[in-house]
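hey
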């Protein structure tokens, strides 16, 4: 059991290092803007135009073209999914 726990902890720690290892501290400029470093923009596939989405417990930054594709896909598929309809109904929105 100890070896399994140890293995899980190593994998979890590796994931956390990967996920937050590229994090950088940024300071807003005088107009309240933040600059997303080139390495993170590249990793996220962000182009010139982005969309910022407010989620219940976070915000997301999407490349505009990728977001448009996602919206189009959802409009075609999302409204017909009964499981998704139940999940949305449970949110009360």
């Amino acid at each position: 059991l100890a070896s399994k726990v140890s293995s899980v902890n190593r994998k979890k720690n590796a994931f956390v290092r990967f996920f937050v290892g590229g994090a950088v501290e940024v300071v807003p400029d005088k107009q309240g803007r933040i600059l997303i470093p080139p390495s993170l923009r590249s990793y996220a596939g962000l182009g010139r135009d982005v969309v910022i989405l407010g989620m219940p417990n976070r915000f997301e930054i999407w490349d505009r073209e990728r977001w448009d594709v996602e919206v189009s896909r959802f409009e075609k598929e999302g409204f017909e999914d009964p499981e998704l309809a139940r999940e949305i109904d449970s949110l009360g929105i």
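Residues 2-91 form one domain. The first strand starts at residue 50 and ends at 54.
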